[in-house]
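User: I'm curious whether this sequence folds into something compact or stays loose and floppy. Could you predict its structure so I can see for myself?
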Amino acid sequence: MIGAFTEDESVAWPSYVDFLSSFAIIMILFAGYMAFLLSNGVRDTAFMADVDKVSAIKGATPDWDRREIQVNLSDVLTYDRGCPLRKDGCLEMDPQQQENLREIGRQIGEYYPHSSRISVQGRADKEQGKDPYRNMEVAGSRAMEVFKILKECKTCAPEFRSKLEIANVGDTRAYGIGPEYRTVFIILDYSDANE
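Assistant: Here's the prediction. I'll summarize afterward.
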C-alpha cells in the first residue's frame, strides 16, 4: 500500500547526530575524569618519593591526610616565654642555631624537591597573657626570624628559597604549656605538587 505506515516508521529513532553528540559528551567526561586521576597520581607519586626520605632530617614526620611533611624545629630552636619580642634580655638566635637552620634548609632543598610550598609556621604555647593577641605576635616574630635566615641562606637551593612562605598559627595547634610548644615548624606542602 502506498502511503500506509508500517509500525516501525512511527517510532522516532535517534539520529546519527544524536548518537555522536552523546558519545562526544561521554568521551569529554571520561577524559576529564582521567585527567583528574592522573593529576592525583602525580601528586601522590611526588609525595611518596619524598616520604621515603623522611628520616633524612631529624624532626620530620609525614602527615598523610594533609599530604605534608612537617619538620619540627623544637630540637634546634626553643624560646623563652615571649621571645623574641620581649626586650628584657631575651636571647637572640645564636650563630650555631642559625647554622643548624641553614643546614636544615639545605637538606630540605636536597631531599624534598617535589613540594609545591614550604611554609615556615611560628607557634606558641597555650599560656595566655593580658593581651589576647600576644601569642600570635610572638609566634609570628619567631616565624619571621626563621624565614629571614632561610630566605638569605646561600647554601640552600634557589628552588627551596623561592617556595618559602610564612605562616602564623599562634597557639591554635598547641596542646600545653612549655618550651616544646614555643617553636617553629617547617611545613612541606604537596597538595599542588606538579612533578
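Summary: The mean pLDDT is 77. The CA atoms of residues 76 and 97 lie 6 Å apart.
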